[in-house]
Amino acid sequence: MTFAQSVYEYLKTVPRGKVVTYGMIAAALGRPRASRQVGNALHRNPTPVVIPCHRVVNREGRLAPAFAFGGIGVQARLLEEEGVEVVDGYVDMVKYCWDGHSCPVQDTLGPYGTSV
Questions:
Q1: Burial, 74: exposed, middle or buried (Cβ in 10 Å; 0-12, 13-18, 19+)?
Q2: Domain count of the chain?
Q3: What range does the domain containing 45 cover?
């Protein structure tokens, strides 16, 4: 299985209404320094309806400015349809980060990526 295929399979496990970061995916796949490679794989997502790449945000909870499948507005709409609140292009990582993982910003950032 290629790294990209591993990213796609992993992302299928992220529940509706939750988000993960590029770095969280990379770390879960045993390649903690491969965040950019995760992003590249998601940009080439062959089946965006099946592989929910809209559930991936950066470590601050910011949406992807160049979301490959329609832009930031589409990513925001898809997340909001799942019950994720998006404010000024950010997701509250404390509230929406997938509980299946240690969310990296919980101790250092407040809601919407603001410093505590």
A1: middle
A2: 1
A3: 3-113
* CATH code for the domain in which residue 42 is found: 1.10.10.10
Q: What is the pLDDT of residues 25-62, one digit of tens each?
A: 999 999 999 999 999 999 999 998 799 999 999 999 99
Tell me the residue type at 96: Y
Residue length of the chain: 116
- Residues 95 and 80: their CA atoms lie apart, in Å, by 14
CA dihedral defined by 97, 102, 105, 110, rounded to 10 degrees?
Answer: 60
Active site residue 53: yes
Q: What is the pLDDT of residues 11-29, one digit of tens each?
A: 999 999 999 999 999 999 9
∠ Cα 83 42 104 (to 5°): 60
Among residues 53, 56, 76, 78, the one annotated as catalytic is: 53
Closest CA to 83 of 5, 16, 37: 16
What is the pTM (predicted TM-score) of this model?
0.84
- Show the tokens assigned to 103: 């969310």
